[in-house]
Amino acid sequence: MAQQYTVRSYAKGVDQTPRKVSLVASLVRGRTVADALVILEHVPKRAAQPVIKAIESAKANATNNHNLDGKTLEITTLSVTAGPRLKRFKPASRGRALPFQKKSSHILVEVTGSEKPKKAAAKPVSEAVAEETN
Predict the structure, then answer these.
(1) What is the domain-level CATH number for residue 105?
(2) Are the CB atoms for 33 and 73 separated by under 8 Å?
């Protein structure tokens, strides 16, 4: 059996509230990466885009950096935590200023999968030419 590896990806400082992003993240938690991307493409919420980007980043990290098979990838962890808040004021009537906060989120995606099967070593050119002439 092939050994399982875990690869991480972070999307930090997403300019949306963690509560709204968590709703979208809960739809695909625990699914395969391919299924998750198909589901998120059809979710009509603005919060789906950063979650898609984070999952695609984890997939790219796994296939390019860690030599994992893209077809075997599953989402093991998909967590959304609160990022830094920007404290701002909105003008109100009678010269007042009402405070509000611009909330942001951090998205963590962990993906597990197995390694790609190793290809057979290529024959040296001299041996390949010798076989063709025989």
Answers:
(1) 3.90.470.10
(2) yes
**Which residues, at least 6 apart from 109, have a Cβ–Cβ distance to it below 8 Å?**
8, 9, 10, 11, 54, 55, 57, 58, 75, 77, 78
| Mean pLDDT by groups of 10 residues along the chain of 134 residues | 84 96 96 96 97 96 92 95 98 97 97 85 70 68
What is residue 120's predicted lDDT score, i.e. its pLDDT?
Answer: 75
Question: How many domains would you assign to the chain?
Answer: 1
Buried b (16+ CB within 10 A) or exposed e, 68-97: beeebbbbeebebeebeeeeeeeeeeeeee
Range(s) of the domain holding residue 21: 4-133
